[in-house]
Amino acid sequence: MKKRKVVRVIFCCLITVLISGCATMSPEVDRSLIGVQIHPELAQSFGLKDRQGAFVTFVEKDDPADKAGIKARDIIVEFDGKEIKEVNDLSKTVAATPPGKTVKVKIIRDGKEKLLTVTIGKLSESPQWTGYATPGPLLPGQTDGNFTVAVDSIAAHGAALKGITYIIVSGMKDVSDNDLQFKEFARFIENALSQRGYKRVSVNENADLLIRLAYGIGEPQTIAYTKTYTTSTGYSYPVGQMWFTVPPQKEQTTIKETTYKRTLILDAYDLKDTDKHSQLWKTTVKSEGTMSDLRTVLPFMITAAVSYFGVDTIGQKEINLSGRDKRVLDIRK
User: What is the pTM of this model?
Assistant: First the structure.
């Protein structure tokens, strides 16, 4: 059977395209991959007419686009000799390109055209897109188990166009910018935002944005529930002309579980708007679980939210991460 090629391109509004021929997936399907997230609305603000091109908001590390030199805020206008006028043009063109083929990609960066070379990859070769790493020894910063993270981000119209340089300050009354834990968490945020094309600066006069970071963990919540176990299956046995039945034996156990609600809030303000310092975007990240160590949990929460910083999710999104997700290591470095 001929293998089907499917593209996976994730938009900034988090629409996932996995369509090329039949929608049913199987182990035999080859899924073509370049590893970018694209936004359908922003290209017109970067020098293109009629919103032509695919605006890149995020590039997956070590995926084909990253290796080719494509960066966040580039606009893809041509792929393998085919003009890219809109998001669907890119997804369809990549879907029709077999993994392993090397193609020319024309982009616009800072108003100038550049021609790059991309070798199409396979989705199965990119653990970032599945969120799971190959099983093996745990690396520092990894953990067994899974995390479920809720992300809710809201952004003003044109927020992504207000600049890329920023300073980061504490958004908590009792935590100063010099607090050691704050500095560590701010570094995690810096690593995440750098993947989106943002650049942290140390001098206020050089910053376009002021970003406030706040985080916290709630009081422990203990719940008790009863779980029923079957300790012995039922059976029947004959006695003379009669049959007797022994029902299954069950046992109940009361289990107590303590959980914690963890929250991270990141909001950005326009420093160039000297009169109002208007708010540009705000991202709220929440998770709940048995782990109370924020130094362990927060990198996973940031990893789940990195694609949403500075954009509008139009509602809450739920993301599941493996404790072995290698992307966390890039946040912790």
Answer: 0.65
